[in-house]
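Hello Y.,

Per our agreement to keep a running log of every chain we model this quarter, I'm adding this entry. I've kept the format consistent with earlier entries: sequence first, then predicted structure.
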Amino acid sequence: MCEPRYKMSAASGLILEGGGMRGVFTCGVLDNLMDRGVRFPYTIGVSAGACNGLSYMSGQRGRARYSNIDLLDKYHYVSLRHLIFKGNIMDFDLLFDEFPNRIIPYDYPAYAACPERYEMVTTSCRTGRACYFEEKHNPERIIDIVRASSSLPFVSPISYVDGEPMLDGGIADSIPLERAQALGYDNNLVVLTRNKGYRKSTKPTSVPPFFYHRYPHLREAIRRRNEVYNYQIELVERLEAEGRLTVLRPQKPITVSRIERDSRRLSDLYDEGYAIANSLIIDNL
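Predicted structure for the entry above:
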């Protein structure tokens, strides 16, 4: 069987799905790309994909893996205890303050200097629609955006970007392929965190009446999330079958949950992401 091949061009886009801790698969893919010096003219990340994509954009190889696996073991920043005592399933103070500023510093100057485009996706609570942000020069705003993109509905508080209430980008646009195409990037490499053929339940997501009652459009977006996700996956698979895009996804059955805390499982999924990316022949510009 021929090894998969991807040819870089000026219209190349890299699309990073979210998926919580399943995003360690993406960490492996991105570390492999960095080891090979592969840079895309345009990258877009959602939720965990937005977090991991930032380390790719700054060229900090291994940073995302270290924060997702090694530091999770040390700080236990994902737990129901945080939800009970802080109102958030994750310790955002640690993740978006201590980590980038002190524990594993983010290289803001390197990110600001990189010539490639990078967008992060959030969902507007007011409109229920996806918002796409590019920011390289204001560290506080960068953190506001990635924090909002990672704010999971029901288990994280609403975040704010430029004073506007936002939540997880995956609510409105889990796989922003059409966004990339709309900007003229039609030669795309899509990194998914689920096996081929995965679909969400066809039932609408139930939103209890005491959640987001001030934001009816957000409630509707959450309710329709499964429908939109399945449409996007079907689009990806159709274009992949037609040879119009390339997809990297886990091949083994997924045992890692969105809030996984088992470092062995996380390390295995990271290794799989690295190996699958390494099998892809990339013809650079």
